[in-house]
Write a structure and sequence with these properties.
Blueprint lengths: L2 H13 L4 H14 L3 E2 L13 E6 L2 E6 L5 H4 L1 E7 L4 E12 L2 E9 L12 E11 L4 E7 L26 H4 L3 E4 L8 H12 L5 E13 L4 E3 L5 E4 L2 H16 L5 E7 L16 H13 L5 H7 L2 E5 L2 E2 L22 E3 L10 H14 L4 E3 L11 H9 L2 E6 L1 E3 L6 E4 L2 H14 L1
Amino acid sequence: MDRQTFNEGLLTFIQQSPTPFHATETMAGLLLAAGFQRLEESESWELRRGGSYLVCRDGAIIALRLGQQPLLESGAHLTGAHTDSPCLKVKPVAERTANGYLQLGVEVYGGALLNPWFDRDLSLAGKVSFLDDDNEINSCLIDLHRPVAIIPSLAIHLDREANSNKRVDAQKHLPPILACMHQEESYSFEEFLLTTLRAQNGHSGVQKILSHELLFYDTQPPAIIGLRDQFIAGARLDNLLSCYLMTRGLLDASADSTSIMVCNDHEEVGSASASGAQGPFLKSVLQRLVSQENTAIDAFERVLRKSLLLSIDNAHGVHPNYADFHDPAHGPRLNGGPVIKINANQRYASNTESVARFRHYCNREGVNCQSFVMRSDLACGSTIGPLTATETGITTVDVGVPTFAMHSIRELAGTEDAEQLYRVVRAFFDR
């Protein structure tokens, strides 16, 4: 796959994935179209060598290809990422009116950079659970697609210190505006959802909305930008970019060894959930996978010790206007190649062995790789890598694509890096 085709597919994937639920559904669609078989966790599994399978849990997905080699000989080649991004999430009791305007109450999900959310054309997407006319509980995904809300900034005339001392009160300043309200007019967000489900999703039998997980997102589509078309600008690059390159790598590899891709939810809020990296999802699938092949009491632990995980999450590129926030010797550059992330306090899971193995794959593919270490006087973020390594004991390396504006409503990456990391992942699954 050439770089242009890869990047076009990436942009399409991001546009189709405004929420973790949609990202999981979109990845599942790509895999199913390629012959993967969907598994249900509540059912018994009968897996065969050479088979391709996927299993979804809420906003998370695990896909795997079983190699011809026994797991006890080869171990598993795993890659991991996350489907969620910082955003604004609609509260359960959402509607509110103030000074004649309809607004929705929101919570901040994750460590969002809040100022860029102002003055953007926002839409809503997510998951809704409802009672149908057979008195059964069902769920479905919705996406309004069109701009329905905005969070206007306060004019500079009313806040002369806005450019030097901008403070965002999440409770007071972030509820988006959706409409003007007439005096004495009432509005039911539940009724709006009922109408939307009946019209957009074809659920004519919807009787009552029971719950929802709805997220606001920026409607501006992702794009290739720059004087020389060297940058990708878009929402949710952290971490849909990694999800896409992993999916493409798995689809395009012809693995003899067992290859597994896991995309967890809730990384941005700590990963402690049923579908998060600190939860049981991956370990449960691995245990079922090993038990299908070998019932020895120590088989599971032996397979884990022969496995390797590439934890793939975006890295901080050196911003030319803020270069002093980086260690001078560890400044990843956009379009300089994938980044190996290292931290002495185990905020990243990379160690000598895992770094060496990743560098070896990069060298074999002719891909340059960079290193990132946080400044010693600044706190370091983390990824699913240390959590997955803690839960499973699998040797892990944290890597990713360098980006700017991480956790903004619109982030920036290079047009070369994701495709290069895709090639390394494809080779990793192949060998």
